[in-house]
């Protein structure tokens, strides 16, 4: 009986003096879907100023995250010059209670469909465009790298620099102004301000469209100066 009572007394003693096995550390599991959703939200916000229909086509991320317990936050950073469409490599940083626990690069691709001017038919080099040559459709901004016309009137009257196939988006560098002053042509040089107006006869040393700055030679002084094309016979010197 004494042995039994002694055993009971030992069981009742506090255990603070004895080593106890540590329990498993708390783990916060963040699903792959949650990580992708955070990246997608960032991409959509990045592309919002484009005024286009946005579709996130690829987020090259896989796997759930096992993180310590705490508040989980995501930071996604795109390359400085990336405009929000096409492929890119973004940096993903995952923090727990403001401490970085994961930092990796993720490949993404965003489609941004915007209304832009396209060729209504095959356009040959040297053609001067009219409204009937053009149409407005939605195309991916990645096809034109942002340099596109969104208004037909902006392209009318410009000249095709190289052949464009039907339905192809028209980039701004596909077209050029039509020169109205030819190289070697005699022009009137005008120099004026609010007080005085001076004119002289000159010869164009290069071709130019309306608004272009070209070099002209004053036929009286033989001096060459820069002048802006006003119309088919007139150039103006600013002073």
UniProtKB/TrEMBL annotation:
<keyword id="KW-0732">Signal</keyword>
<feature type="domain" description="AFP-like">
    <location>
        <begin position="116"/>
        <end position="178"/>
    </location>
</feature>
<dbReference type="InterPro" id="IPR039246">
    <property type="entry name" value="Flagellar_FlgA"/>
</dbReference>
<keyword id="KW-1005">Bacterial flagellum biogenesis</keyword>
<dbReference type="GO" id="GO:0044780">
    <property type="term" value="P:bacterial-type flagellum assembly"/>
</dbReference>
<dbReference type="InterPro" id="IPR041231">
    <property type="entry name" value="FlgA_N"/>
</dbReference>
<dbReference type="InterPro" id="IPR013974">
    <property type="entry name" value="SAF"/>
</dbReference>
<protein>
    <recommendedName>
        <fullName>Flagella basal body P-ring formation protein FlgA</fullName>
    </recommendedName>
</protein>
<dbReference type="InterPro" id="IPR036732">
    <property type="entry name" value="AFP_Neu5c_C_sf"/>
</dbReference>
<dbReference type="Pfam" id="PF17656">
    <property type="entry name" value="ChapFlgA_N"/>
</dbReference>
<keyword id="KW-0966">Cell projection</keyword>
<comment type="function">
    <text>Involved in the assembly process of the P-ring formation. It may associate with FlgF on the rod constituting a structure essential for the P-ring assembly or may act as a modulator protein for the P-ring assembly.</text>
</comment>
<comment type="similarity">
    <text>Belongs to the FlgA family.</text>
</comment>
<dbReference type="GO" id="GO:0042597">
    <property type="term" value="C:periplasmic space"/>
</dbReference>
<dbReference type="Pfam" id="PF13144">
    <property type="entry name" value="ChapFlgA"/>
</dbReference>
<feature type="signal peptide">
    <location>
        <begin position="1"/>
        <end position="19"/>
    </location>
</feature>
<dbReference type="InterPro" id="IPR006190">
    <property type="entry name" value="SAF_AFP_Neu5Ac"/>
</dbReference>
<keyword id="KW-0969">Cilium</keyword>
<keyword id="KW-0282">Flagellum</keyword>
<keyword id="KW-0574">Periplasm</keyword>
<dbReference type="InterPro" id="IPR017585">
    <property type="entry name" value="SAF_FlgA"/>
</dbReference>
């Amino acid at each position: 009986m004494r042995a039994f009572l002694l055993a009971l007394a030992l069981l009742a003693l506090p255990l603070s003096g004895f080593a106890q096995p540590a329990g498993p550390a708390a783990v916060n599991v963040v699903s792959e879907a949650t990580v992708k959703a955070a990246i997608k939200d960032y991409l959509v916000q990045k592309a919002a100023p484009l005024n286009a229909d946005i579709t996130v086509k690829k987020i090259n991320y896989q796997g759930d995250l096992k993180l310590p317990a705490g508040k989980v936050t995501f930071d996604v950073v795109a390359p400085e010059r990336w405009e929000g469409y096409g492929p890119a490599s973004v940096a993903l940083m995952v923090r727990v209670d403001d401490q970085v626990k994961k930092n990796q690069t993720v490949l993404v691709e965003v489609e941004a469909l915007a209304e832009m001017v396209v060729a209504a038919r095959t356009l040959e080099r040297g053609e001067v465009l009219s409204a009937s040559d053009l149409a407005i459709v939605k195309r991916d901004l990645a096809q034109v790298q942002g340099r596109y016309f969104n208004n037909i009137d902006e392209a009318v009257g410009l000249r095709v620099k190289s052949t464009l196939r039907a339905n192809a988006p028209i980039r701004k560098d596909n077209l050029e102004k039509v020169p109205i002053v030819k190289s070697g042509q005699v022009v009137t040089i005008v120099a004026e301000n609010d007080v005085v107006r001076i004119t002289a006869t000159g010869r164009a040393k290069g071709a130019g469209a309306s608004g272009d700055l070209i070099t002209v030679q004053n036929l009286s002084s033989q001096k060459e100066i820069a002048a802006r094309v006003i119309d088919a016979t007139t150039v103006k010197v600013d002073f």
